[in-house]
Amino acid sequence: MTRSAKPRAAVNEAQKARRQPERARQAILQAALLEFAQEGMAGARTDHIARAAHVNKALIYYYFKDKEHLYGAVLDQVFSGLAERINEVLDRELPPREKVLAYAAAHFDYIAASPMYPRVVQREMMRAGRKGSPHIRRIVESHLRPVQGRLAELFRAGMESGDFRRVDAPHFVFSIVAMNVFYFSSAPVIALLSHADPLAPEAVAARRAAVLDLIAAALFTPSPPPAGGSQA
Q1: pTM of the model
Q2: Pair 10, 56: CB distance under 8 Å
Q3: Answer CATH for 67-219 from 3.30.70.890, 3.40.720.10, 1.10.101.10, 1.10.357.10
Q4: I need a labelling partner for 45 at 20 to 30 A (CA). Which of 21, 34, 58, 214 fits?
Q5: What is the distance between the alpha carbons of residues 70 and 77, in angstroms, rounded to a whole number?
């Protein structure tokens, strides 16, 4: 390609983007998610992202100021999608026991839909701890804190109704998140230990059931015997 042809190609990509802006932007974000999950912010290459998204590299900068802004957009997409999924569950009129299990299942299913999510999130957490991050405070305030407040209210209602044991609600929520995230982030090690594919559909379904069973066993108060029934 000649020098004069390269600017024309970039212009053509921009013109395509204007015609189908959301499709091109989503292709870039999906490709960026994989690149950042595998290589981290420092190691990710925008030319690799452009190639995977089937766009001209210049188009990335048409949508995003630089690699840091692209990385922030990926994080926002991951966390906003999770918050949307969880809020949909918390909006339902359900008894506390059903609602907390629905929350845990929704969180699990969101991660299971893209095992790359835990990788990119954990990389961001480590990056924030080492050098600080321009994104972590925005993510917490915009996506995590509102959900955390709603979960605190759910646990408060469950304990007051007698459905839940008296537990430290924030720590219990952290434990739910950890149970879900650890399985997918540790899939390579689990595969070696179990001599099986932990991401196979039947394995994921078994893990999901095990998580929900453990939550119920750890959180729910014993159910009273049926009226008129005999006690052993």
Answers
A1: 0.82
A2: yes
A3: 1.10.357.10
A4: 21
A5: 11
